[in-house]
Amino acid sequence: MNRWMAGAALTAAAALVLTGCGRTDGPAGSNESKGAIDNEPATGEITIWAMGNEGEVLDQLAAKFEDENPDVTVNVTAVPWESAHDRIATSIAGGETPDISMLGTTWVGEFAATGALEPTPEGLVEPSDFFEGSWGTAVVDDVAYGVPWYVDTRVLYYRTDMAEAAGVEPPTTWEESKTFSAALQKQGAKSGVSLPPGGFDSWQYISPNAWQDGGDILSEDGSEFTFDTEAWKAAFEYYNSYFEEGIAEPTRFETGEIEQEFIDGTVGSFYSGPFHVGLLREQGGEDFADKFAVAMVPGESSRTSFTGGGNLAVFNDSENRDASWKFVRWLSEPETQIEWYGISTDLPSTTAAFEDPQFADDPYLSVFAEQLADSKAPPAIPTWAQVSAVIDQELEKVTRGDTTVDEAIATIQEQATSIGTGN
Fold first, then answer.
1. 227 Cβ partners below 8 Å, 6+ apart?
2. Domains in the chain, number
3. H/E run at residue 307
4. What's the CATH number where 78 sits?
5. 28 pLDDT exceeds 50?
6. Per the CB 3.0–4.6 Å rule, which of 192, 287, 327, 365 could disulfide with 181?
7. pLDDT tens digits, residue range 328-376?
8. In the predicted model, is pLDDT for residue 401 greater than 60?
9. For residue 195, what are the CA distances in angstroms to 164, 205, 300, 342?
10. Pairing of β 147-153 and β 139-140
11. DSSP code of 126?
C-alpha cells in the first residue's frame, strides 16, 4: 500500500464504525492534557500499535530507547493497515486501548471526537519544529492530539530523457504543466501524465489543485464547506481538461503497475511520494536512474501539494502515560528521525532533520523537503471519510462525461453540507 495513501486508505470503508460512538459514548475524555512531561528516564512497560512496514521494523528503534532508559520495556504490536482502523475503533469502544497508536493522518479528527485521545502535553514538543502542513494533521479544533511521526508528500516524477528530447523544463504553473505533459506524449508516451480518473482517494489529487488556486475545504472559522467556489470549479475544469484533451488516459494504475508503465515510457510523468524513488531505481535498473527526476508540483497562486504520513497518539486510558509521551517525544527528535529513516525510509516530520546531508544533498529527497514546506492536509474532521468519498464519486462522473463540473460542484457542496463537519 502506498505510504501517502495509508492514512486514508480504509477510512471510507470503515467510516460508519464510530458513528454510534460519539463524544458521549466513548471513553471519558477532555480537551486538556493531564499535565507536563518531565525529563526523567522512562520506566515501566509501554504498548504501541504501528501499522504496515513501521510495525515490522519499529522494534529496531525501540531497542535504542530501551538502552537509553534501562527501566522501560517497549512492546510493539504490528497491525496490518487493512484492519487497523477497525481495530482501533473496537479498542476504543471496549476501553482496551494500547498506550500509544500510530494513526493515519486523516483518522485523527474521527478518533479525537470519541474523547479517547489525550491532548499533547504543553511543552512536549515545539510545533514550529514540524512542517506546518504536517503539524496541522494532529490538530482538531485548535487542540493537538499526538505528534506527527513521519511525513509523505506528493511531487512530480518525470522522464528526463523525454523532457530533454522535447526541449521542455519541469513545469511551475498549470499552463506549463499542460504543455509539458503534451510534449512528453509527443515523445511516445500514451499518457503525458498519469492521473486517476476519479474514484477511490482521487480527492488527494484534485484538492491540491483547489489549494493552488487559493481555495480551501472549510471556511476560515471551520463552520462551513467551501466547495461552491471559483477555485474548486477551476480545479475541476483544469483536472478534467487532461482527459478531454487526451493528455491523460482514463486509466487507474496501482503500485506495481505505474512503475513499469513509467519505465517503459507508456507514462511520461506521474505524481507520487518518496517511496517511488527506490522502487524505480530497483525495477528500472542502474541505467534508468539517469532517466527520471522529481520536481515540485506546478500550481497557480501556490505550488501546494497533498501531505500525509503517520502520527503518534497517546490514549487517555494509557496505563503508563508519562513513559508513553516520553517515547513519542524521543521518536520526534531530529536525531531519532534521521536514524529512523535509515531503518524505515520514512521521511522525518521535523524540519531540522532535513538539514542532514543525506537529505539536503540528495537530488530527490531535497525536492521532497522543499515540497513539504508547501504542503497541506484536509481538515481533521470526523466526517472527512464521507465527504471525500463524494468528491471521489463526482470527479469520476466528470471525467467520464456523465455530469458537468458545475453539477458536480453543486452536488459536493450539497452533500458535504448535509453530512456536516461532525464537530
1. 217, 409, 412, 413, 416
2. 2
3. strand 305-314
4. 3.40.190.10
5. no
6. 192
7. 999 999 999 999 999 999 999 999 999 999 999 999 999 999 999 999 9
8. yes
9. 22, 8, 18, 31
10. unpaired
11. -
**What single letter denotes the amino acid at residue 367?**
V
Half-sphere exposure of 257 (CA within 13 A, CB side): 5
Amino acid letter, residue 225: F
Amino acid at 392: D
The answer, as to whether pTM is greater than 0.85, is: yes
Instruction: Report, as an integer, the average pLDDT of 282-299.
Output: 95
Measured between its terminal Cα atoms, the distance across the chain in Å is: 30
Q: Which three cell numbers stand for residue 10?
A: 480504509
Are residues 291 and 403 located together in one domain of the fold? Answer: yes
Of 336, 353, 380, nearest in space to 112 by CA: 380
Beta strands 100-104; 44-51: pairing state: parallel
Give 269's contacts (C-beta < 8 A, 6+ positions apart).
156, 157, 158, 159, 180, 181, 184, 192, 193, 194
Distance in angstroms (rounded) separating the CA atoms of residues 380 and 423: 10
Tell me: do 229 and 296 sit in the same domain.
yes
For residue 98, what are the CA distances in angstroms to 93, 303, 315, 318? 13, 39, 7, 7
CA distance 322 to 215: 41
Residues 254 and 397 in one domain: yes
> In this structure, which amino acid lies at residue 119?
P
Domain limits for position 279: 156-305+381-419
Same domain membership, residue 247 and residue 102: no
Long-range contacts of 53-56 (CB under 8 A, 24+ apart): 53/3, 53/344, 54/102, 54/150, 54/310, 54/344, 54/346, 55/79, 55/102
Asked whether the beta carbons of 298 and 176 are under 8 A apart, the reply is yes
* Residue 38 burial (10 A CB sphere; 0-12, 13-18, 19+): exposed
Residue written as cell 504553473?
173
Residue type, 356: D
Chain segment 202-256, per-residue pLDDT in tens: 999 999 999 999 999 999 999 999 999 999 999 999 999 999 999 999 988 876 8
